[in-house]
Structures are given as C-alpha cells and as structure tokens.
Design goal:
Blueprint (H helix, E strand, L loop, with lengths): L2 H16 L5 H21 L3 H23 L6 E6 L4 H9 L1 H7 L12 E7 L2 E11 L2 E9 L7 H7 L2 H6 L4 E5 L6 H6 L3 E3 L2 E5 L1
Parallel strand pairs: 4-5
Antiparallel strand pairs: 1-2, 2-3, 3-4, 5-7, 6-7
Helix pairs in contact: 1-2, 2-3
Organism: Trueperella bernardiae
Keywords: Membrane, Transmembrane, Transmembrane helix
Protein name: N-acetyltransferase domain-containing protein
Length: 203
C-alpha cells in the first residue's frame, strides 16, 4: 500500500473510532488526530473543500480540549454522603450491574450496610458510587465506580483529593486489595502504591 494511501486510511479510521468512544476527552483527542491527518492528506492532493472542512474540525476539537483542560478543576463534581440502603444506591447498582461486575468482580453489595457510601455527582447527574469501610486510620475500598462517559481520571482525582471527605471519616489512607481491582492501572494513576496484596494511597 502506498504511503499516502495508508495515511489517508489511518485518518479515516481514527475519525470512525472516535465516534465509538463514550469518553468526551478521548473522542476529542481521536477526532482531532484523525481530522488533522485527513487535513494533511487533502492538502497534499489538493482536495481543498475536504481540507478546509477537516481543518475546521481540528480547530473545534482543539478548542474543546482546551476547555476541558481548563475546566478540570471546575467541572461540577460533588460527593453526596448517602445511606448504603437508600433506593437511589440500589437503583444505581441495578442499572450498572454488568459494568460494575467487570470493574470490581469481587464486589458484594451485601457488604455495603457495614460501609460508608458516597454517590459521585456531576452537576445533577449521578455518575459514580464510592464505598469504603473505615478500620482504624485506613479506609478499605469496596467499590470505586464511575459511568463510562466520565472515565477520564478527573472524577477520581476530585474524589481522592477531597481532604475534608476523608477527615470526616477519620482515615489518613485508603486501600484496595489488588485482587479486587480489575484495573490496577487506574489506581496507580490516582496515586496508589503497590504494597504486596494491597494498593494504598495517603489522603
């Protein structure tokens, strides 16, 4: 396959893949890359209408990525302390049962009544559930789940950076068993350190 033909196909594939990604940030990044490649391809072959269209898309994607980066600290996240037995918690668990089972395969909702539960909100939307069981000065995480559209690390950064939340729980560290975490890379990116069988983070 000639080089320029490969480049053209690569741009098209990236644009198509971007449309299948639920994360807003990832969509913008992939769409920008695909459109940029398409812009270069169309300029090289003098296809000016498509070059102009893709160039404008690149500018639009770049603008919204800048907005997302600028607004990361002000995205309207909040944490709501709830009773683990509340109907809203049960509804969230039922609605996202399959995805939760993938992210936390050993999660047992029967353990929630003995834990502290929190709903993670984005403005007026419930986007996640966080629950831990305080034991001494360590909070043992039962679940840290957010809906797919918000999996860009910012909800977790907001949660684990919320010092007042953990002060209220009288814990100075949180831990999750390594075997309970289907995605240990997520916890590593949130500042957790590998302590053998546990992933641990100071708060």
């Amino acid at each position: 396959m000639p080089l320029w033909e490969f480049i053209g196909w690569a741009g098209s594939v990236l644009v198509i893949v971007s449309l299948m990604v639920p994360s807003i940030r990832r969509f913008r990044v992939l769409n920008l890359l695909g459109s940029f490649i398409a812009t270069v391809y169309n300029i090289y072959f003098g296809i000016w209408p498509y070059a102009a269209m893709n160039g404008v898309i690149v500018i639009i994607d770049a603008y919204w990525l800048w907005r997302l980066t600028r607004d990361d600290g002000e995205r309207g996240y909040s944490v709501l302390d709830v009773d683990a037995g509340e109907s809203l918690v049960a509804r969230f668990l039922d609605r996202h049962a399959a995805a939760i089972a993938e992210a936390f395969p050993r999660f047992d909702r029967a353990a929630l009544p003995s834990a502290r539960a929190f709903l993670l909100m984005h403005e007026d939307e419930v986007i996640g559930l966080f629950a831990l069981r305080p034991e001494g000065d360590t909070g043992h995480i039962l679940i840290d789940y957010v809906t797919e559209r918000f999996r860009d690390l910012t909800p977790g950064a907001f949660l684990y950076g919320n010092a007042s939340l953990f002060e209220g729980l009288a814990v100075n560290s949180v831990a999750v068993p390594l075997r309970d975490a289907a995605d240990p890379v997520y916890f590593a990116k949130q500042g957790f350190a590998d302590r053998g069988d546990l992933l641990v983070r100071g708060v």
